[in-house]
Amino acid sequence: MTSGPKQRTIAKSVSVEGLGLQTGGKVRLTLKSSPADSGITFVRTDLPDKPSLNLRLLALGSSDAVERRTTLGFGPGQIQTTEHLLAALSGLSIDNIAVELDNTELPGLDGSAKSFVDLIKSSGVVEQEKARNSLKVGRVTACSAKDSLIAVFPDEQFRISYTLSYKDPAIGTQFYSIIVNEKDFETEIAPARTFCLEEEARELLKRGLGKGANYDNTLVIGKAGPVNTALRFPNEPVRHKILDLIGDLYILGMPIMGHVVAIKSGHALNAELVKKLREG
């Protein structure tokens, strides 16, 4: 670990209500400032004794048991679909915050990280007295599964290069690479929405997923392109994959100084990389 700029939290409490993208459950989310060195803590206010889970102590839930989202913790106190909020916290360099919610899944809002960025900025961001820690990658670390791969290489900055490849020509193969800093995250990554193929949507509903999804918060892509919406970027899907990856990596609780190269990586493989990085 290396010392960097000052740690940051938010200035005042802010709240938002919405539906979980996968469960469709109504949830109220409240963000509160937190002391230096306290990290990111999730609190389930709907459960007896309001159990809390700190990122430093959290275990990743099974990606096989909970599809198409990142789940933290196990049992009734788990927190689902954390990736978009964590991406916003990472992108805005928020180190310490309390995240309160009264249901199992975070709200989907517009299906990207933009709404969370706007919520955090409406509170204001303040520096704290302690230096920020970061994980400086000293050696190549990699994980693979079937035709997917993710690896991180030593670098002086946080950089992500992602290749997405779908057989469906409406998406096809997309590549995007970015040095992740606050300005570029907010404009180039945060607005990219979660997406699925139109043919996938019906099947997901049959499996009990996507109950809170609609054309406003999910980029549904049909044979002729986006359905009932327009792309925010020509390559919005690959940018959203980078958004998810930024959020999943922030489960480490600190920024990475390294170049992450990913090919068709999803939440499960991202989680495996986080585990390897934690283990050193």
What is this structure, in a nutshell?
With 280 residues, the chain is an alpha+beta fold. It has helices at 83-91, 114-123, 182-189, 198-206, 236-249, 267-279, and strands spanning 2-10, 14-19, 26-33, 40-44, 52-54, 71-72, 79-80, 97-101, 125-136, 141-145, 148-154, 158-165, 173-179, 195-197, 219-222, 225-226, 256-263.
Query: How many alpha or pi helices?
Result: 6
Return the CATH architecture of the domain at 2-133: 2-Layer Sandwich
Main structural class: alpha+beta
Based on CA inertia axes, which overall geometry fits?
globular
CATH topology of the domain at 2-133: Ribosomal Protein S5, domain 2
- Total number of strands: 17
Level-1 CATH class name of the domain at 2-133: Alpha Beta
The value of Rg in angstroms is 18 Å
Ranges where pLDDT stays below 50 over 5 or more residues in a row are 61-65
What share of residues are in beta strands? 25-35%
Helix content: 10-25%
What is the helix/strand order? EEEEEEEHEHEEEEEHEHEEHEH
- Describe the largest sheet: 7 strands, mixed
**What is the CATH superfamily classification of the domain at 2-133?**
lpxc deacetylase, domain 1
What's the end-to-end separation, in Å? 11 Å
pLDDT averaged residue by residue: 91
